[in-house]
Amino acid sequence: MKTKYLLRSASMIVLVAITSCSKDFLDRNPLNSVSSQIFWQSETDVQTALTGVYSRLQQNFLGYERVYLDGLSDNAFLDNNTNQGGNMNTLTTGNLSAATGGAINNLYSSPYRAISSCNFFLDNVDKAPLTDAAKNVYKAEVRFIRALAYFDLVQLFGGVPIYRTSPPTADDAKIAKSSAADVYTFINEDLDFAIANLPDDRYTGHAVRGSAKGIKVRVLLTQQRWAEAAGLAQEIISSGKFALANNYANLFKTAGQSSGAGSNNEIMFSTQYLAPNNIQRANQGMDIELGWFSLIMPYKDLIDDYEMTDGRRITESPLYNAATPYANRDPRLDLTIKLPGEVWRNAQGTVWSGSYVSQTTFIMEKYVDLSRAPFTTSTAQSTDQDYVHLRYADVLLMYAEAQNEANGPSSSVYDAVDAVRGRAGVNMPPLDRTRYSTKDLLREAIRHERRIELALEGQRYFDLKRWNIAHIKLPTLKTPAGTTLVFGTNNYLLPFQQSELDNNPQLRQNTGY
Known about the structure:
about 525 residues, two-stranded antiparallel ribbon, 8 strands
């Protein structure tokens, strides 16, 4: 998989020009960044521009930092993350306003930077001497990325300004926000184009048809278009192009993501990195931030949700022993979280014990690559785990959710969940079909499975919101300092920041801020 789209170093000067930013213009690219007379003259130019578009996925929450969004959910507490202005915890304790800044600025601006690069590409690619068929494949990749960016924006902020092309001037960018419904319509238009024109191949670094179909399933779920979501997910399943990895932990490690079989068959789209020139962050990245600085500290509420190996909860299973609470648990618990008393070793047996003390007693292990331990700022220069946006297990669980909501329990729903639970190396027992025999009961089982399977991958925050239970669940938790989490009904949307309101007088603040 590490045959990357990110490195065409001979053209990097042109790439920088194409993706250059203008801060007071929502970082939209000026149309004169690169002269049409010296660019868009060959397929190599198009590929270089495409590289610039993909590189936008490395920024903030479009890349590896997306895992920090689990700290806005009931899964984890976030220690001080200076990369995001050090204020992400304020998003969970009610201190949200037009002046919050930090992470909220990045949640808004980074998608628009991606959209800017996408629009610049789409505005100019027809100048290149390529066949329409070839251009449509490139356009499909770019429209897929644009859909990803707008999907983030609409989930976070609701209705936002839609830019189908690059605004010629800063004044032209000052437009009113469209309704959330119109944003979703635009997203689905882009995804439909991508589905129609992307190659129907396995994923190896560039978006493929399955990537676009999978993200569209997620979009349809968010819109509660259950039958359509189930049908599209079934198309992915029936295609045979993707499969569950044979090693859960390796899905999140460089070596596993690079292997020929197993993990690669499950990953359907990712933000990619490649050492030494495209690492996650100089002197930091996941190994340092998660494995050393312990910035993501899972809540006990998440730990307690992992079942025993007999498929029962810890409150029900005879296997549970309070004296050894982590024995006989779903194997994904130990593969996702460093548990109290656990010793981390690299392949040579060297112990890594330098992690900062967790305020919850738990540390995130998923995405920490112990093959590089002991961690130093030097080992950070090798940190290039790809962040996985979409994998086949998610598609199976989305199918189960959509099909259950559309038609209630069926063998296909149980089978999809059981496949995820029973993957090699996890081997959890199938769902009890007698116990989960109704739509409502099965809904809770599916939601539980999503939490466990996708824990600390950045999905939980969006799941809680689309299920409309964030305002119910989050206030039941407290931070390690004893502060109750705050999430009101107005917090389903984030506030536009004052700088954006000042830059665009047509933009109106969301209700409640």
